[in-house]
Fold this sequence. Notes:
2 domains, disordered C terminus, Na+/H+ antiporter like fold
Amino acid sequence: MEDLSLVVTLVLALGMATLGGLVARRVGQPALLGYILAGVLLGPNTPGLAADRDRVALLANLGVAFLMFALGVEFSLEELMRVRRVALLAGGLQIVLTLMFGTIVGVAIGWPPAAAMLLGAAFAISSSIVAIKLLTGRGEVERPHGRIAFGIGVVQDLSVVPLLALLPLLSGSADNLPAALARSLGTAAVALVVALAVGMRLVPRVLFALARSGSRELFLMTVVVIALGAGLASQAAGLSFALGAFLAGIVVSESEFGGQVLAEVIPLRDLFATIFFVAVGMLVDPPFLRAHAGLVLALVGALVAGKLILTGSALRVAGVDVRVAVPAAATLAQMGEFSFVLAGIGMTAGIIGSDQYGVILAVALGSIVAAPSLLHFAPRLADLTARLTRAGVPPQPDDLDPAAAATPREVVICGHRKVGAEIGRMLRHVGVPYAVIDLNPAVVRRLRGRGAFAVYGDAAAPPVLERAGVVGAKVLAIAIPDLVTATAAVREARRLNPAIRVIALAGTPRAVPALEAAGVDQVVQPEFEAALGIGRQALRWVGLAAADARSIVSDQRRHIYDRDRAAAAAAPAHFQPSPANPEPTSAPST
Length: 590
């Protein structure tokens, strides 16, 4: 069964994670706490079922890559530039202050100076993975504090490079520290520039060619190769695996394929990210925790409180409003996966012993477990802090203004063939901002070349609809003949924006009741409307008054659509025109 051991490990990890997540949700806790508990039960330090920790860690790396890649696709280079000032200033200040604070704490508990500095370095780095899962679960990814937290997280990830270069100094094995540090930073800088320069030119062309092929499998495989390949290349260049995947996502986000790429990778992200938290739980050693419970709890309290205060203070220095700074600080008030890396290398270099390594792991896990509750209470804490400090709510800087993230688009058009193109022309003529979703990459690229906002992807995919701006739109115009895609797009659009009005094209008479059942406000059937338009014009030419012609056409329209409902008896009744939903008038005017 050796050849199936990986499958066995995957089944155990996902099975226990499912049970743990269900239990956590039943008791009102975030599912990730259940995943960590599942890892504890599957770990080598608890009796019963046991999974191979090395194999789980391998699968967890896939979760890290897909999670960071998806974050990069969602966040985009424009978003990073928007928060760059706050991220660099607050992130740099937070790292220095937290490193110093952690060093003081380490000395206070009796650790040698070198070990204390390593503890400070571990304190300084937060977990981007935990932050993403928490904010995604709360729907706060695009909120100002979410964007700021991600920006600081990127700065923290980049800081791992010099921190790793400083470890030889702590171990006393550095021959020429300035040269080693300069070489490490230089390699990282060159790798970043090359990755972005090459990626911006190459990746969009590759995705464009694959999109034109029409093969969804080839498109998905390429996305996976880009995410994992970028992570491996980044690690080989001395950067982190996660940072490479994140940069690959940033590159993809700048192309017209970001929405569809995100739709493809989300299932992989959610699946393997779950295993990451299982792998974290497997690091727990219950006997060690019992023996060092007092020390671990004290350090967790010091870490969470200290990091919350120091990060919040750094953000305030950077000019961020307190009601944004506190939730952002709460999101980052934990230790992350890079802290595990620093601790592991520190133990190998002799900077810390096995007990100290176990304490660092336990504190990191404790802070991760505390993170959901801390973020839950962050808004109340922000209000309390604002009252105590008498801080007002000044206007946020332009780079943090949520409204500046995208121009509101009142209409989203799905499909840009003849009907969709005509809708776009009418909207453009009267100056109504709109977005287009289309699966033809050539169409999307042509529209973008003209300055229009166009998104490549499947209109039924939630990330594609979100990127097109359906959440803030007033109207969704579905101009595609594919009934399956159209009905799915309506359901997702209604879920994202219940107030949106939907008008859809019915490719056949039988599609009318199906679209109405999916939630379409108004269905237009071209054959019917063409017949009614021609008939109305004929009535006017034979001398009938305009009002009488309109009345006859209106009655006939009801008759036609009622007849169609009867022909599809299993479908719900069709929409009845009302003042709020006027009848379609596609026929030429008289």
